[in-house]
């Protein structure tokens, strides 16, 4: 039987999506809820964020990193809501940390298109 501790769910979901930008060219996704602290750094020094193509590539990288950081929640159907929350918060926090209006607009447009 598998058990899941939900007492600190809101706390770890907030910190799960914590992202730190270093040198203005990378974002780190950290998952303190798992042993070993899964972490993923998204580099974007190679992208020109003044162009739509660069913003789209960064958005894709952020979404992939969020999927990877939250992937441990995908294995069980009863964790689907937790995975969705983890993923959404990780993406939103990364976008807020990068703090580029064009990236924020792309994210909002993507969420609106999904409904």
Can you give a write-up of this model?
The chain has 115 residues and is an alpha+beta fold. The protein has one domain (9-114). Helix content is 52%, strand content 14%. The protein has a 3-stranded antiparallel beta sheet with strand order 1-2-3. Helix 2 crosses helix 4. The chain is globular and about 40 Å long.
What percent strand? 5-15%
Q: How far is the N terminus from the C terminus?
A: 36 Å
Would you tell me the structural class of the helices and strands?
A: alpha+beta
Topology order in helix (H) and strand (E) letters? HEEEHHH
Unreliable parts: 1-24, 31-37
Side-by-side strand order of the widest sheet:
1-2-3
What descriptive keywords fit this protein?
4 helices; 3 strands; alpha+beta; three-stranded antiparallel sheet; 115 residues
List the helices and strands and how they pair.
Layout: H1 9-16, E1 19-22, E2 26-31, E3 38-43, H2 52-70, H3 80-98, H4 101-114
Antiparallel strand pairs: 1-2, 2-3
